[in-house]
Structures
1.
Amino acid sequence: MRSSKPEVLGFFAVGDAALRTNPLYGRGCSSAVMHAHILAEVLTATPDPRIRALQFEWRGFNELRPFWEALRQQDLGAIRRAKNEQDPSYKPRLKARLIKSFTDDAITPASRGDIKVLRALMPAFHMLERPAAFLMRPIIVARILWMWAKPKASKRHLYPVKLGPDRAEMLRQLGLKGAPA
């Protein structure tokens, strides 16, 4: 538990009032629903306002924090990639290239071309399972790895449509500083 003495009794902040998230991910409603269910269970479990406050805080923290942390890591990664894109001399390390390839060339096409993989991803997306719970299922991991092993040409139709040039190409086309030579 984060606190042993609640400051206010009988007040329960849920959803966006309790947890700030990046709206890009669309998790506000899902986190509010999770909070509401936690609150309903806590209110039913005990009439003691102090215990209610402590249980609600503890459960809200433990059940919502993994989703918040996963999104925080995604945001930090996006910020890091955006910063690195501005450095023409930047070369990603092997680990970064592998993670990007696993996401772009395995998970993404597998989720678009294999209904079992898509169905395994959706519960975490909708906050019904912990983030990356699908990676604990050997059959799903095997299907994703199988997709990763396929040549890109054979799964070209499973990649999202590219909506425009990457940063380096855009700078080059515009003749701006920082464009690759």
2.
Amino acid sequence: MTGDWMFHCYMLRCADGSYYVGHTDNIDQRVAQHQAGWVKGYTFTRRPVDLVWNDRFQTRHDAKAAERQIKGWGRPKKEALIAGDWDRISELAKSKSAQAKP
């Protein structure tokens, strides 16, 4: 690996206000595919979509792991990620773990 960032994890805001999280090796092409309706599934009936967040990874495995993690988050945590508010993400993670304790 040469240090190039070849894979992306991304989040789209759909026309209905919901969020879609995915991963790809070509972010511009993939967003255009979602926008054009080439991607059958969640975003197809929720267009137009807007790219609201993405990050780059060196491996597909890492991008897919980030996708799985973010898909498990609630809306407030996703919105904190979009805003780049790492303090809020940490706060939400702590409050969720506190709720999970018996």
